[in-house]
Amino acid sequence: MHSYIGNIHIHSSHSDGAQSIPEIAKEASQAGLDFIIVTDHDIIPLSDEGYYDDVLVLCGTEVNDTKHHYLALNVHKEIPPNDENPQQVIDAVNAQDGLGFIAHPYEKGSPLVLNNRTYPWTDWSVTGFTGIEVWNWSSQWRDGVQNIFLGLFYAYLHPTGPITGPTPEAMARFDEITRSRKITAIAGSDAHNWPIRRGPIRRDIFPYHYLFRTANNCVLLSEPLSKDLPTAKAQIYEALRYGRSYIVNRLASEATGFAFFATCDNTEFQMGDTVPLTDNTALHVQCPLECRGSTTIRIIHNGTLLDEIDRCNVAIRAYKPGTYRLEIRHGKKPWIFTNPIYISKA
């Protein structure tokens, strides 16, 4: 499999972001990304899609205003917002054969930012969505800043202080849903590069180049990423649609050399695949050489901790059907969070 890393949930000057898409693409290139997905509010600037040097830029949109924010990808027409009936938004995305991700569903807010305003997702009766943004870096950081002292401390001395990994409530909801159907977990930066100008304080809140080195999404492709825009676009979105991806926090470590896959009777299966349960079904974990000895790997089965190991390059026999995913910490930092492999009775 061929691995490509990218950042999802980005805002540009087309809506409330600080820079143009070409400027953001330059930042992404300097950060070593392969692709980015811009999700401005109320606009889909498809004319800006394409390769900017070595970075593939794709454009979706973030739909809705006060709540039920939804990332609509691979759509070509704007989606009418409907804060009160998010199912209509989901259906409109699906009607265009698009992908949709529930954004920052459990954010808590901060009295220092927008007067504690949040944009939660409360209607879990909806169906048909592709997945959930289980980790929104900007929202999690803001949620941890509950007073001015913490804000200054985190902003200037300990910028990753509030960062703990995917939101537990979002992961619990994800695990619950994947026991009955397949969905995809993604991370979002929610990058805006907001400039703060208050008296002597001059600071850009989460510049693009910083967020591009935090929580990203690594997609697995069966063929190298094409330089042809329509083909490359289909490759990225197919991987996200079927959960052939995992989340990686690059501030902890790069994920080059990481792999999580299953085997059964000499056949290899990737994240998002369904594997028959036989006497030969096994899960395999591989980690980069430089991370060995400093990682803790949690194997999650149907949302419950199955095992915790501190070694890499292991094969683990699967005895029960269900969903299997990994949560990995490098040192004390949240590092890799995979989408599930689904094991079913043969």
TrEMBL record:
Organism of this sequence: Dethiobacter alkaliphilus AHT 1
PANTHER family in the record: EXONUCLEASE (PTHR42924), POLYMERASE_HISTIDINOL PHOSPHATASE N-TERMINAL DOMAIN-CONTAINING PROTEIN (PTHR42924:SF3)
One function term, GO molecular function aspect: 5'-3' RNA exonuclease activity
Top-level taxon of origin: Bacteria
Residue ranges of domain Polymerase/histidinol phosphatase N-terminal in the record: 6-67
Cited SMART domains: POLIIIAc (SM00481)
Protein name per the record: PHP domain protein
